[in-house]
Amino acid sequence: MNSAIRRPSEVPDDQVPLDVRNVTKRFRRRGRGQSQPGPGGRRRTYHTAVHSVSFRMRPQEIYGVIGANGSGKSSLIRILSTLIIPDEGDVLIFGRDALRSPASVRPLLNRVSADPSFFRAMSALENLLFYGRAYGIAGPLVRRRSLDLLTRLGLEHEAKEPMTELSRGQQQKVAVARAFLTGPRLMLLDEPTTGLDPRSKRTVQSFISDVRRDGVAILLTTHDMEEADQLCDRLAFLAGGRIVAEGTSEELRAHVAGSTTRNADDVDMEDVFMAFTGRSIEEDEEEPESREELQNDTA
Amino acid sequence: MTQLEDVVRLPAPRRVALGWAFFERQTNLWKRYWAWEVVWVVYGVVNTLAITFIAKEASHGGLIRPGEVSRLTLFLLIGTLTWAYLSAVLDDMSLVITWERWEGTIEHTFMTPVSRTIHLIGMSVFGVVHATIRTAVIMACALPFFDINFSHVNWTEVVAVIAIGSVSLVGLGILTGILPMLYPERGVQMSFMVQALVLLVSGVYYGIDVLPGWLQAASHLSPATFMLNGVRAAMLNGAGFGSEGRTLLILAIFGLVMVPSSLVVFAAAERWAKKTGRLKRQG
Fold it and tell me: Which residue of B105, B113, B280 is in closest CB contact with A118?
């Protein structure tokens, strides 16, 4: 991590939304990669998707993780979501150990991914009813909250339509409603506006800003520099599974400007990304979308 | 603390409410995919008729005496209906992972704070209710085709055998449901293979005494064998709790062993899938 970037202020552990300490995740893969001894002494090929990642979020912060496709963003989000078990490191969510006691952190967090993923034949309301109930919320309250959220997102007339009848943008708004329905204290947003038209994108971004005012801490992964700059309080750049820089956008710009003759105001986030990773985000996006999905041996 | 301890610590109404989330979701899916249900019922009716008519053919061909037709008809009918029930429960349980992968919802469901035990129990209760309704419809459609005397049937015993036997079926269903998690590409086909083996060794359309010795030994590992024995004894001979107590006891032991062990194996498989990143992986 770049030493010029200031460390976040210390707050009690149980008020820290997310504290990630030296998290590493390797996946077995075919083809290229590091060859390491596996069980039984056999040498196997591994790809390190997340490499000694550490950061600590502040209460009610929007913390952005910027990286190209294949940089390890999705693996990191899945680790934080208790869906992938890392090889090394610790994850604390409001002081609770997410790796050793995942059940204790699940009520505190929720997630929106780039792919909305619903039971397609069911309506938006039926889907929300299931997820609300699964978080222990009573049916009538789920219905009330769902309709309120769908109305705020402009979907009051689509609530009872099957998901297959909704556009991609509308489905993503329902995904946002699903995530906020359960009253999470930490929200993991994994490229929530990818593939949305500009209007839907603005609605979702405005909703994210609104809910932050309700006291929710948000971890946002994106490869959209403008979105990250606009929404996030602090940013981390992820490249090759490592955090290569962290700070506010002003701090990151100033750091890049300091190493050149340019004024910080003339440095944009794309320049910052290039400076810290040595590549443009477009170059990196030519890499496979999700390496870990290519890594596992077939059954 | 284990998942089971987590579940036990929850107040009973909360456990029921969380399990209900899955029952209600499956019911909504069932309603939305009603055309599939019609297909399965038609298939079940046709299958039941095609197999049960063999009894009439056996009589016409002189293979059995006319007086034995009714008994053979009932024997085959019990086999086809019990298999319709068994396969419906096993299918629903094997879809625990497959359906969620197909919809892409598996990560969101596995992120919810519901213990896997409650999740699987909710799915199991739906599976049993779904299978009961489907089998009752198939039976109602098939019965007018045959002249069967039910006067000597001990219905209480039939219900007891099916109720107790269903617990062990749920255990078997959870075990087969693990296969798609372990093997994203071939898991579903492997669960069908397990069903086919159960069909072979359990004496669905014949008594297990016609099987070779080693298959007869294998048949004792299948709870379906004892379920079929119990149902046939109650329906063909009017046997009651007195004479079939041993069958009920064996089925109860199967259930007591298979359900907790299947939950433990499922938890281990889930942990392995999370370590290897296979949870999200499509087939």
Answer: B105
User: How far is the alpha carbon of B129 from chain A, nearest alpha carbon, in Å?
Assistant: 19
Provide the residue ranges of all domains of chain A, joining segments of one domain with +: 16-115+185-295
CB pairs under 8 A between A and B: 107
Of B6, B20, B105, the CB nearest to A133: B20
Record: fold of A16-115+185-295:
Rossmann fold (3.40.50)
Q: Which residues of B touch A107 (CB under 8 A)?
A: 113
Residue B122: HSE in the Cβ half-sphere, 13 Å Cα cutoff: 25
Q: What is the pLDDT along chain A (299 residues), one digit of tens a residue?
A: 444 333 555 688 889 999 999 999 999 876 555 666 655 566 678 889 999 999 999 999 999 999 888 889 989 999 999 999 999 999 999 999 999 999 999 999 999 988 889 999 999 999 999 999 999 999 999 999 999 999 988 899 999 999 999 998 899 999 999 999 999 999 999 988 887 888 888 888 888 888 888 889 999 998 888 889 889 999 999 999 999 999 999 999 888 887 777 777 778 888 888 888 876 666 655 544 444 444 443 33
Q: Would you kindly state where each structural domain of chain B is located, as residue ranges?
A: 3-276
**Cβ neighbours around B52 below 10 Å, total:** 25
Residue A203 near residue A153, CB atoms below 8 Å: yes
Please give the structure tokens belonging to residue B40.
């399965």
Distance CA B198, CA B216 (A): 12
Q: Identify the closest residue of chain A to B100 by CA–CA distance.
A: A119
Q: Is the dihedral of CA B126, B129, B132, B135 positive or negative?
A: negative
Partner-chain residue, chosen from B18, B109, B281, that has the shortest CB–CB distance to A296: B281
Quote the minimal CA–CA distance from B103 to chain A in Å.
Answer: 6
